[in-house]
UniProtKB/TrEMBL annotation:
Residues 1-493 form the Major facilitator superfamily (MFS) profile domain. It comes from the Bacteria. Pfam families: MFS_1. It comes from Lichenicoccus roseus. This is DHA2 family efflux MFS transporter permease subunit. It is found in: Cell membrane. The lineage of its organism: Bacteria, Pseudomonadati, Pseudomonadota, Alphaproteobacteria, Acetobacterales. One of its GO terms (molecular function) is transmembrane transporter activity.
Length: 501
């Protein structure tokens, strides 16, 4: 089941790192390429909160099996896509069918592991949840540079088939209850699907279309707000809601969801920002980018045994607080970024980010979900995992907006100082004019070429300063998260096995 979880989470970033290659292979326009990722994320965020109800209907065994089989089959379809439209449809299927693997692993760990063993299982799952997105650019860059972009999807086939065949043989947690199909709140499902899909679209596409200056973004924002508001009211009133919103009445679960949201911001947004910086500012290839950020994944793996060792002696709340604080320090160290930074300069900040990820993720699972009674766990797990994905979507949207606005602001401030009164700028233009003017047939364009070079230099530095601002925003989110941990109650894991449902 953890192999399935790893595949589902890895697939988000492994494809994101090679979108340009996929678009080129399918002769797609620039504005169509992003939909390869957006379609997957929209479908996934709809299905994750539904997984609790689907588990009750079909059982953990058969839901996970169907999800693994669907993910594997749709991966094959993605590899065989013949144009961008077919790819978008198959990616949506991949996200829709594979999404249930993520929350189902979390609830299953509570069945199979009790007592102190829950700490170990949460550490393993937490490590997978944080390492898989980090390894995405590394694996995706290597596959794209050495094989072909279609192998981004072919690599899912063998492990996906193995998971599909082995889960029915090994997993036996609960029994299906098909009678729930008759009593289901289908109107609530529709409202949730419409609300979450339009919200994800707004977050993913808002920056590209200048947010509410675009009529489609504005309409989708209204549709999302109204749909989700009606969904919340309905879920609190009907007898059999598809999502157990009443679980938010539990303090630990509510705080756990907030912290899951913040860790989603940290994990997914930094994996978005760092490759973007290395690609656009430093001009790195996909493989070079992957190798430059590889240290984050190594540090995450090293953090797991350290967490397990410390968890035997220290309250999980304090370990989580330390993890959140360390992540905040990492973001602060990222804020000193310059246009000359490469793998060497990124090493310490990335280690500070990677090592505490399991400290931030694993305790939130035990403290947030472990505080709920078993009968509510399945429904609540979907909400809990959705918050992490939603945090990633919000974090990326906010960071993209920060990059856009702050780059313009920093460029204006830099350009205002590049006048004839600035000796350094004047000498740069003079030297560049002489250099370009000395080229055969280019003497008359030497000054214009020098001005363009100065413009590019100013734009590069403005972009770098904007990245620093984006990292500071993430730092503030983790400062808030560090404070929130103090309000969580301690959860003692049960020693007796949890009954099947």
């Amino acid at each position: 089941m953890c192999v399935g979880l790893f595949m589902a989470l890895l697939d988000i970033q492994i494809v994101a790192s090679s979108l340009q290659n996929i678009g080129g292979g399918l002769s797609a326009a620039q504005d169509e390429i992003s939909w390869v990722q957006t379609a997957y994320l929209i479908a996934e965020i709809i299905m994750i909160p539904l997984s609790g109800w689907l588990t009750r209907v079909f059982s953990t065994r058969w839901l996970f099996t169907a999800s693994a089989a669907g993910f594997t089959a749709s991966s094959l379809l993605c590899a065989l896509a013949w144009d961008i439209q077919s790819m978008i449809v198959f990616r949506a299927l991949q996200g829709l069918l594979g999404a249930s693997m993520v929350p189902t692993v979390f609830t299953s760990s509570f069945h199979y592991f009790q007592g102190t063993r829950r700490v170990y299982s949460a550490a393993v799952i937490g490590t997978i949840a944080s390492v898989a997105p980090t390894l995405g650019p590394v694996i995706g860059g290597w596959i794209t540079d050495t094989l072909d972009w279609r192998w981004l999807f072919y690599v899912n086939l063998v492990p996906g088939l193995a998971v599909t065949l082995l889960v029915p043989l090994l997993v036996d947690i609960d029994k299906p209850d098909l009678s729930l199909l008759r009593r289901a709140d289908y109107a609530g499902m529709l409202l949730m699907a419409v609300g979450l899909s339009t919200l994800e679209y707004v977050l993913e596409e808002g920056t590209r279309w200048n947010w509410f200056d675009d009529a489609t973004i504005t309409d989708c924002a209204w549709i999302s707000g109204v749909s989700l508001a009606i969904f919340v009211v309905r879920s609190l009133m009907v007898a059999n809601p598809v999502v157990d919103l009443r679980a938010f009445g539990n303090r630990n679960f509510s705080l756990g969801c907030c912290l899951s949201f913040i860790t989603g911001v940290g994990i997914f947004t930094t994996i978005y920002l760092t490759p973007l910086f290395l690609g656009y500012v430093r001009g790195y290839s996909a493989w070079q980018t992957g190798m430059a950020i590889f240290s984050t994944g190594v540090a995450s793996l090293l953090g797991t045994p350290a967490f397990i060792l410390l968890s035997k002696r220290i309250d999980a709340r304090w370990l989580m607080m330390a993890g959140m604080a360390c992540f905040a320090v990492a973001m602060w160290s990222f804020s000193f970024i310059t246009s000359a930074w490469s793998g060497a300069e990124l090493l310490v900040p990335q280690v500070l980010r990677g090592f505490p990820q399991v400290f931030a993720v694993a305790p939130s699972v035990n403290l947030g979900l472990g505080s709920l009674p078993p009968e509510r766990l399945k429904y609540a797990s979907g909400l809990f995992n959705m918050m992490r994905n939603l945090g990633g979507a919000v974090g990326i949207a906010v960071s993209a907006a920060v990059l856009n606005d702050r780059t313009n602001l920093h460029f204006t401030m830099i350009a205002s100082n590049l006048t004839t009164a600035n000796g350094a700028a004047t000498r740069f233009v003079a030297a560049a004019t002489a250099r370009y003017g000395a080229m055969p047939g280019a003497a008359q364009d030497g000054h214009a070429a020098a001005i363009r070079a100065l413009w590019n230099l100013a734009d590069r530095e403005a972009s770098t300063l904007a990245y620093a601002d984006a990292f500071r925003v993430i730092m503030l989110a983790f400062v808030v998260g560090t404070i929130l941990v103090a309000f969580m109650r301690r959860v003692a894991p049960p020693k007796a096995p949890v009954a099947s449902h």
